[in-house]
Amino acid sequence: MAPQRLLLLFIFLFYFSSFPSTARFITGPSSPTDLFSDGISTVKNPPFLSLKPLFSAEESCEQTYGFLPCTTTVLGNLFLIIVYGYLMFLAATYLSNGSELLLEILGPGIVGGLFLPILGALPDAMLILVSGLSGTAETAQDQVSVGMGLLAGSTVMLLTVIWGSCVVVGRCDIRDSVAVDGTITKGFHLTETGVSTDIWTCYAASIMAISVIPFVIVQLPQVLNSTSGRHLAVLIALIISVSMLVSYCVYQVFQPWIQRRRLAFVKHKHVISGILRHLKKQAFGKLLTEDGEPNTEIIRKLFETIDENGDGRLSPSELKALIIGIRFEEIDFDKDDAVMKVMADFDTSLDSYIQKEEFVRGITKWINEAKQTGGAYLEPNAGTFKFIDQFHQQTKREHALLGSEEQSDEVVEHVENPRWISFKAVLMLLLGTLIAAAFADPLVDAVDNFSTATSIPSFFISFIALPLATNSSEAVSAIIFATRKKQRTASLTFSELYGAVTMNNVLCLSVFLALVYVRGLTWDFSSEVLVILIVCIVMGAFASFRTTFPLWTCSIAYILYPFSLALVYVLDYVFGWS
Predict the structure, then answer these.
(1) Residue of 183, 104, 108 whose CA lies nearest to 496
(2) In which domain, by residue range, is 437 found?
(3) Average pLDDT of 50-71?
(4) Phi, psi dihedral angles at 100 (to 5 degrees)
(5) Which of 33, 240, 315, 353 has a 20 to 30 A CA-CA distance from 545?
(6) Number of compact structural domains in the chain
(7) pLDDT at residue 272 tops 80
(8) What gap in Å lies between CA 390 and CA 370, rounded to an integer?
(9) What SUPFAM superfamilies does UniProt report for this protein, alphabetically (predicted)?
(10) Quick one: which of 60, 65, 67 has its CA closest to 17?
């Protein structure tokens, strides 16, 4: 982002604000006896005067901070919305770029799990905050609809337009219900192209759907037609929303550790399935008896083939030779770590060797676990069961769903000059925060004045226009990331979208509820809450139970956006539902 553009905008705003915000109205003389004519005294109500509200206004306006420009005209406020919106876009861009720089040298841990989600939601939170702090309670009640419009519009745009666009640009050919990385030969086929994500993305979608609980709670009094419990419902929803915010941040902090543990467990299962398949081949399909029980005699003979020195026990080096000889091509893992875990499963005597009976008991245990997981499928003309192959295939799918291992929360060694990068990241985060804090209030005022000048409800202006400013940087980043056409990047892209909506539902809503409770405002947003619930629940449920999204699924997202806007309009301004 070129700093010269920002500097020019500041200079322009300073120059523009140096003059009083007044206007000269051209009117005809009050008396026909005036000796001099100004050239228009003989014209009565000319047609072009019907456009006067676009360029001038008779009402005065209050300058934000006492010096920033203001106007009551349509075009003037439209210009201010564009300028202030661009500044909020700059703030979001600086916050996003600073977050990415910080993430280059620090892992997800505390930085990625706690600070970055909060910083990503900061511009929206600032706009919501200033919309409820302006002037008297009556003024705040009027302007708070800007905050609710931004909250609803941001959530809807992320889960509809941006979500659908990521599916379109990130699509790959689908084979065996999984999108193949970097392969696109079927164009825009609705069912045979799409994107695939990992299982953690499903968890993120589920959390997003759960995060709408505070909306339900705050809306209960209106559903029950109760007026006495509305203030209490706001307080309860605020407490739950803050609790969910803390819980979500804690989960984000520990999620990389949880993912590493899950991935390590699945890798160990993969080693188990690989050894069982290898032993099954060595036993010529006779690893089990006819009734499906482990064949202990065959297992003892297999032990003797692995025991290279014939001392009646397996050493770690012999076990490692077995694992290396199997050639696990599907995944890459630490062979020494795999040996240690197999030894821990088999070596019950703790003498660092696997005795023959320990080997038999260990293999029997593994076979029984595979039977429970893979199911018992009779192999025709083989005299054994196919559940070992089923267990192996299921383990491969689990590993693919978990994705690759996350980076730890430590300084990355290959990053050059990490101190300078850290300083630059912090500087960009501070600059983005300052810009968002400084220009959130003027933007809300401009939206409110534009609404007054055009008689368009401020909710619709904030619903459509403001998310373009606060989320455009995030949207462009997500779409560009999705164009890499890989499962890993698709998983990160959709996880970030679900995470951003979750922060809207907990952080931004917490700010909004705190304003309503502290200032004694009226919660009067039934239709807006309904839209948020519909979009979050539909998309959350849709993304929680599947990891592959064919191209046709983007149509659902695209349809939800105009549906949401039309629903709010019909409920609020046709039926008067509040």
Answers:
(1) 108
(2) 74-265+418-575
(3) 63
(4) -65, -40
(5) 240
(6) 2
(7) no
(8) 8
(9) EF-hand
(10) 67
Encode burial over 94-131: b for 16+ CB neighbours within 10 A, e otherwise: bbbbbbebbbebbbbbebbbbbbbebbbbbbbbbbbbb
Mean pLDDT of 236-256: 87
Residue 537: band (very low, low, confident or very high) from pLDDT cuts 50, 70, 90? very high
**Do 476 and 449 belong together in one domain?**
yes
For residue 261, how far is the Cα from the chain centroid?
Answer: 23
* pLDDT per residue as tens digits for the range 470-516: 777 677 777 877 888 888 788 878 888 898 899 889 998 999 899 88
Mean pLDDT of 531-557: 92
Residue whose structure tokens are 């019907």: 50
Minimal CA–CA distance to 526: which of 126, 150, 152? 152
Same domain, 105 and 250: yes
pLDDT for the residue 193: 93
- State residue 508 phi and psi, 5-degree precision: -65, -40
Q: Which two tokens stand for residue 479?
A: 């779409």
Distance CA 440, CA 433 (A): 11
Return the axis-axis angle of helices 230-282 and 316-326, rounded to nearest 10°: 90
Give the residues across from 494 on adjacent strands.
none
Dig out the tokens for 528 from the structure.
Answer: 């807006």
Question: Is the dihedral angle over the CA atoms 410, 415, 419, 420 positive or is it negative?
Answer: negative
Separation of alpha carbons 568 and 576, rounded Å: 10
Q: What is the pLDDT of residue 50?
A: 37
The reply to whether 15 falls in a domain is no
Give the angle subtended at the CA of 5 by the CAs of 439 and 134, to the nearest 5°.
Answer: 5
User: Residue 189 has which token pair?
Assistant: 């086929």
The mean pLDDT of 4-26, rounded to a whole number, is 43
Beta bridge partners of residue 481, listed in sequence order: none
- Quote the crossing angle between the two packed helices 137-157 and 553-569, to the nearest 10°: 160
Shared domain check, 348 and 245? no
Average pLDDT over residues 111-138: 74
**What is the pTM for the complete model shown?**
0.68
Host H or E run for residue 178: strand 178-179
Query: d(Cα 200, Cα 221) in Å, to the nearest integer?
Result: 35
